[in-house]
Write a structure and sequence with these properties.
- The protein has 311 residues and is α/β, with parallel strands linked by helices.
- The chain has two domains: 113 residues, Rossmann fold; 160 residues, HUPs (Rossmann fold, 3-Layer(aba) Sandwich).
- Helices cover 40% and strands 18% of the residues.
- It contains ten helices and twelve strands.
- The strands form two sheets. It has a ten-stranded mixed β-sheet, with helices on both faces.
- A hairpin with an 8-residue loop joins strand 5 and strand 6.
- The longest helix has 25 residues.
- The protein starts with a strand and ends in an 11-residue tail after the last strand.
Amino acid sequence: MTPVLAVLEPDLKCPQMALLKAAHLAQENRRRLRIFVNIYAPALVRATNGSSEHFERAKASLEHSWRQRIAQLLQDCSECRSEVEILLAWEKDDESALRDVILADIPECVVIQSGDEGTTGLSRLLLTPRHWILLRKAPCPVMCVSSLPWRGAVDVLAAVDPDQDEGALAGLNAEVVKAARHFSDALDGTLRLAHVIEHPDDNLLLIVGEGLPTYTVDMKSVRDYYVQRLNQLCEQAGLEHSNQVLLEGEPAQALAAYQSEHAPQLLVLGTVQRDPLRRLLFGSTAEKIALNAQGDFLAVKPDGFQSPWQD
């Protein structure tokens, strides 16, 4: 059975919310929990001045400290009754370390903590190059979480595109809804499907207004159209029509505002597979949403996603 992988921050004092949330998911889904941290410390290498004896003692002490820290975190996490495997890496190349541990046993989900822009309440997540590596290259879903704990039920918002597949719950929409349902069950929350209507640019309407479909010019018609499409997706997903969320504006900002207003909430979005020359990107809209997220979000890869790590 595939595990849940918690990727820890290489800082002993960090609260390591990724571990606590990954433990919750592993417990609820009856999965193994793998805990990974790259403990490579350039300062330790410099401090030992190339002495192998001093280096080995210092490295062993650091490893011991990390195992004690992880044991304490697990002890504080009363939910964690899953089988646990601790993986300590010493790799100067952090991407290689991440690649090796993920490809060795491709997890159900990778959970990694993101920095928070603010110190109180929900705030925009700060994503480092390490996060983007996982979002773009990991051949599995990636969950970026804030430092705020989950307390009680956590609702799940699945961002879907009703224009795809002629309104059928197929392709990437199906993958997003499937993952969202899976995690909403684990978090005891309500699952909702969301879409953001982007208002047509005024200049575009002036230039090609006559060539646009009628429903794109009359905003009431636009809303009615997408309400109907979301209703169809809800029906296919076995959800009530009331479980749809129709927003307006720029997608990243609208979803972030809704997520902040209805916290705590997990936002689930799909990534886009690019052509071979640009496949390290995971979709401009998805990237903007990730950069504006006001809480935890899960990035789902499309069916057939080809990771450059697997070449």
